[in-house]
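Ticket #4471: structure output looks truncated?

Reporter: J.K.
Steps to reproduce: submitted the chain below (403 residues) through the standard prediction queue, then opened the result file.
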Amino acid sequence: MSQASARLSLVFSCIGHTFVHLFMALYFVVVLAIEIDWSIPYHDLIGLWTAGALLVGLGALPAGWLADRWSAPGMMVIFYLGLGASAVACSFMDAPLALAVGLAAIGLFAAIYHPVGIAWLVRNAESRGKALGINGIFGGVGVACASVIAGFLIDIHSWRAAFFVPGVVCISTGLALWYCVQRGLVADNGEDRVKTAEVSRGDRLKVFIVLMMTMLLTGLLYQATQVSLPKVFDLRLRDIAGEGIMGIGFAVGAVYTVSAVMQIYGGHLADRYPLKPIYIGAFLLQVPLLIGVGAMTGLPLILVAMLAVLINTAALPAENMLLAHYTPQKHRSLAFGIKFVLAFTIAPVALQLVAFVQERTGEFTWLYYSLGGVALLACLIALILPPRRDMVSEAQVLPSPAE
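Returned output as attached by the reporter:
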């Protein structure tokens, strides 16, 4: 694979990470406007994303399987075109059931990205931690942009524009990738640019079992926070954010923008230090921070929420490097598919948990206290991981095939 093709692959993988998180977070802001437009309670409307959230998880496994056996760039073209078209379709829906179908289509096409795009990025990267950190920035920016773009488009036009405009941009990006693939500017031979040391079958099995449990809990933490945070800010920050959706959108956007930028440091740490303590430490730090989100209001709430999301996402480069290192190359997209089946199939549970707590208490205090307990449990499970001190800066230890 040429260096130019590898760079273009990294570019389209990172842009795709922005789009997938943008569309997966978009509805959590748009619902605040639909709640007013359709006069339907929040806890009923938020449930419309349940099928979409479930499909994001269930679709990951077949998407990874197809990428391993067919083409990662081809699957990414389908991802861009399908995701954009689904969002455009949502902008024309006039009833809850129809909107639920459109959101389900978003979830189905969104399922393609993580097992395909992340494995594609790992395969093309020379410094995996750095590449995963940069990619994580794009994902966090996607969540942040969802809040800001949705808030802006809702306030200047309508919630329909918040689906339509990003959908058209996503389709255009997919057409650009299709052109690059057809012209041979983007190619994929399925081989890693950087070779890594072999590990024992026993270690592979042990790490995979542990990661399945921790990734499930990480998914619950991330999904519950992403779903609930716009409403948490809506309830507790009106004196700061003012009326309208834009102020809340900017507050949520600030949280995810800062946390996204800090992911580059997570990748930096993952390239240079043992992965196990990084991974365990991230869970441990989240415990008091999530409890703080449950208890605080005003500017301290924004700061603590920012730190909680930052620590959660900063651990992802280490997690993805662990999974990539302990997975055979020929099955890597499938392995990432299994990861994101767990991470996103838990989303409906998170969604129903958020709706349950909000409906019965009118707030989210006990939700975040419970999430602090989930983070502690994940920390204890991660202690079982084997110490791998050789997992330090693979790009420095092993030569690139080009060298």
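Triage note (M.O.): checked the attachment and the full token line is present. The chain has one domain: 3-391.
Status: closed, working as intended.
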